[in-house]
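[job 4417] fold queue: 2 targets
>>> target A
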Amino acid sequence: MPEIPLKNALIMGASSGIGYAMAERLAADPGMEALVLCSRSAGSNVPLLFLKSQLVAAGKKCLLLDVDITGEASLIDMTNQLRKDVQAIDLIVNTAGLLHSKDVSPEKALEHICLPSMQQVFAVNAYGPILLAQALMPWLKARRPVVFASLSARVGSITDNRLGGWYSYRASKAAQNQFLKTLAIELARRNPEAIVLALHPGTTDTGLSRPFQANVTQEKLFTPAFVAEHLLQQITQATAEDSGSFIAWDGQRIAW
């Protein structure tokens, strides 16, 4: 599969949508040796447990770690576990994201902004990815090839914002983009072989987008498997010169 050899990968947000599809795709790669699958309840997630059983039966390593990407203590626990069980990581992909929940809805107007909801969205979409990178810095700064990729969204592009609305989601993704760009600059000095990417998956048929699919045509509504395949293509084809880029599923560069 890859131009960049992937033997050891970590997927954050592996229990649903794109994260699970990526886990399945990587598990099917004969070159994969160890897969670390993280989510808030990875250890009790039935599909992930089944995937782990398949990997173990094939003689491969699979760790299911319960991790809250918004919790520093949880991320420290993850790091401590990885130090015991994982020698190297070639690929880190963060697929965790928040657009809506029972307490959160995208704001259509300024009057709809609510500070607690905004803080929840920023905690997952903006702070979570950079806290994850901080926790995994021992692997990112090692002098060897490693990719850190995180799902962003085209609506996080300030240049591309022509419709307005969705204040918290747009701003949190824009903040994530700035964090990732800054991380790419630092890692270029500490590990020139590291690659940091912000990825736009397109509109994917998952719980995150389902309430907002009414005006999306079928040809522009992608399955998680389709998105996982195309995003992994972008990841594995990336070079150090691409580090700090914002890339769509089809390879299109998106303006920050």
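>>> target B
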Amino acid sequence: MSNGKVVRVVGKPQEIGRVVKEIRESIGMSMIRFARKVGISQAQVSRLEDGQQGFRTHTMQKIAIALDTPIVIYFGPKRKAAALASRE
């Protein structure tokens, strides 16, 4: 079940990472627990949140589910937005 908030973000790795980190911290989830829920290493979470590594759609879907927050990423006028919804 979603927390009712839909997050919209521009598709730059730094911006996505910043928003993911803000959401994770706002719900009190540790980086270790978050990494386990997403199925990636803690080091990878750190790189993603710092914008040092890009996000794959599959990973973003897992992130949206782990954070229980639908995420919409806007990639620009020539590309469509990707809506990554959490499970209902």
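[job 4417] complete. Note on B: The chain has a mean pLDDT of 81.
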